[in-house]
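Consider a typical record:
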Amino acid sequence: MRVPVVLLTGVAPEPMAAAMLAAQFDLPGAVACRHHIDPEAQTLTRIVSDLSGVLEEETISLEHACVSCALREDIVPTLERLARDGRWSSIIAHLPLGAEAEQACRVLAMNTRLARHLRVTTVVAALAGGRLEHDLLGDDLLCERGHHSSEDDMRGVGETACAMVELADVVVVTDDAGEPDPRALRLLRTIARPDALVVAGVEHIDGALLTLGAHRPEVAFGWSSPYRAEALPPVLADDVWRLDLRSPHPFHPERLLDHLEDLGEGTHRSRGCFWLPTRPGQALVWDGAGGQLSIGRGEDWGRRDPFTRIVLIGVGVPPAPVSRAFERLLLTPDEASARSWNTPEDGFEPWLGPMREVA
């Protein structure tokens, strides 16, 4: 029998602790496993507990303090060990602060040995109500708050929190930092997957629901994927907007490099994919929030026709120049036919690597 695993994510310690405690009390047969990365000390601390109290606490040294190393060195082995023990009916895995659940989900699902003992039933994102909108759309960095998971972790809080919400099956908004603003909750609902459960208050966490198996990897990864191509549901709130900008054409490398801020800057969430005529086989990832923007190499297009699609979500009034800026960045038919794009460099090497690697 496979043991249900609830993966808990977040960008602040207080909401994660509150959600873990609430889930433990609602699942009396559960064991909780909390991991914390200290990037400066290069250590990983593990605390295992159930309703009887703390069962074990250990700090181990990591050769490189990061989420991938933590998963490999201790998180996944500990989950397997707890499942094999047979004393508990479910496991609540409190991932390191700022760690997204996607990698853990894939490891636990794709490893056949682990899949015989463990089953991810729910991915939970826990956020603080009093600063909800700022955590989703603000420009803070995780390292500025001391919540980074490695020495070189320069991710934005908004980028990380939005990605967690997009993958989550359940989103819990706590009131430890104040009551959530209604507009912030509507923003959260727009970012979250349409069938995800969004609850305000840890008292509404249903332990039985967490272990039933609401997590469907193909659905969760489909919604959170930067390459999603399906139509999006309408936004039902008047004070929340979404712009779905798409085209079969690539971005012009020089114009994109000169005008990244036209799409990337601003108090909004932006997520999607694009392609460049200099790297036609490579799907490129666009991931930003609150003015912080990351671009990177994704998977190959394969047999799919390449496309460019950036989805932006914000509050208040949508910025009219954004749609025009998107159109200006696209390669025109004349530019595509009048010029060869077989050049040695395109200016994106610092972010996407040398062009020869994708030729």
